[in-house]
Amino acid sequence: MKALGALRNPYAGFGLFALLIMGLPLVVTNQYYLGVLVIIAIPSIVVLGLDLLMGYAGQISLGHASFYGLGAYITGVLSAHWQWPPLAGLAVSLPVVAVIAWLIGMPTLKLHGHYLAMATLGFGIIVFIFFNELGPLTGGPSGLTGIEAMNIFGVTFDSDREWYFLSAGFLLGVLLLSINVVRSRVGRALRAIHGSEAASGVLGVNIARYKVGVFVLSAIYAALAGWLYAHYITFISPSSFTFMFSVK
User: Fold this and answer.
1) Cα 83 from Cα 95, distance rounded (Å)
2) Which of 51, 52, 68, 159 has the most C-beta neighbours closer than 10 Å?
3) Using the 8-state DSSP alphabet, how is residue 83 labeled?
4) Is the pTM value of this prediction over 0.85?
5) How far from the centroid of its chain's Cα atoms is residue 113's Cα?
6) How confident is the model over 158-191, as pLDDT tens digits?
């Protein structure tokens, strides 16, 4: 029974998952398969943000590809045009995307159901159009080249094995943060909002603050994933951040 209780503990489950993830390269040594795992790990960070937003708070978003793309394009433009290092690009992209998400979330999260879905979809399409039309800055439909490979404190990540550990490390960090959020007072408030906004409001939950807050947090997750993607591929184009990516 004690063993069963340990498995039900999310931190115990997280520990087992972390051991599995970090031990996987001992079994999977092929560089191609490691590259596939990197491409799985990066969008998984976006999915964790959507899990908090849609799974726990019950808010629909069909525009998260735009936050993913903004995270990638902000660091990509800074790197390709002005030779900013990746960490500097991260320091700019996360707060910029957070502010944009807050500005978008304040009015749109007052909507519900299909209206909310259409509002987030419209935002995603507008951002996609900007990626296409700002050719001198974003490279337009042809894409943006010349993005610097990942370099953190003088350590260059130039193999799929190194990238696997980097992307898996960020994924595990985001997962641990999400577990803490879900098990906190914030997580209880989000589940209450998902169950009934009217009832949670009567009980004193600040509905607007929690809805906008989790929307901003999920956008930051997406921007982080976009930053990783840009410096992994070192080339980005609008086709990677379409409406269909949000749906998938």
Assistant:
1) 20
2) 68
3) -
4) yes
5) 22
6) 899 999 999 999 999 999 999 999 999 999 999 9
